[in-house]
Amino acid sequence: MPNRFALLLVALLAAPAAADDLHLHDGRVIDGVVVKSETASMVEYRRKSVTQKVDSKEVRDIVYGRTSPEFNAGLTALDEGNALAAAEQFYAAAADENLSDFVRATAYAECGEALLANNNFTDALGIFDELLTTFPDTRHYPRALLGKGRAQFFLRQVDEAAATFTKLQDE
């Protein structure tokens, strides 16, 4: 009878790891990492048991290996041009407390953008406010301020939009 420990070890080593990929503005991709934390100023990741950091301003996008069916359905809906379905799926993912905070913050940001694309400015404003309140140190902070200002502008809240854009500029 085979050694159970050896079989378990082989199974674990053969299982694909849910790795994240960092896409940087300069075109480089840092793949096969595990994102440990994200803030407005830096993204910390582990690769081959070495922890490293990169300035958040250098990160264009992160493709997460560990998300949820709702998050993935939101991406699919975006690819299909269905902004409303994408917003619904991303909102469900944002509410999933089993996901990491940075995946949830990304889901909020994607939800807000999808709502803007669907001309649902009132709900978009609420989502961006929720993102800014729930995850104030997220790397999506500038994106959330921009989305909030756009929603305010389209809702004809011109003074509020100007204040939001000024805050974004000052950050």
Helix share of residues?
40-55%
Q: On the 0-100 scale, what is the average pLDDT?
A: 88
Distance N to C terminus: 64 Å
What is the rounded Rg? 19 Å
Order of helices and strands: HEEEEEHHHHHH
Q: Largest sheet at a glance?
A: 5 strands, antiparallel
Spatial order of strands in the largest sheet: 4-3-2-1-5
Structural features, described:
It is a single chain. This protein is α+β, with helices and mostly antiparallel strands. The protein contains 7 helices and 5 strands. The protein has a 5-stranded antiparallel beta sheet, with no helix packed on it. A hairpin with a 3-residue loop joins strand 2 and strand 3. Helix 2 runs antiparallel to helix 3, helix 4 runs antiparallel to helix 5 and helix 4 runs parallel beside helix 6. It starts with a helix and ends with a helix. About 8% of the residues have low confidence.
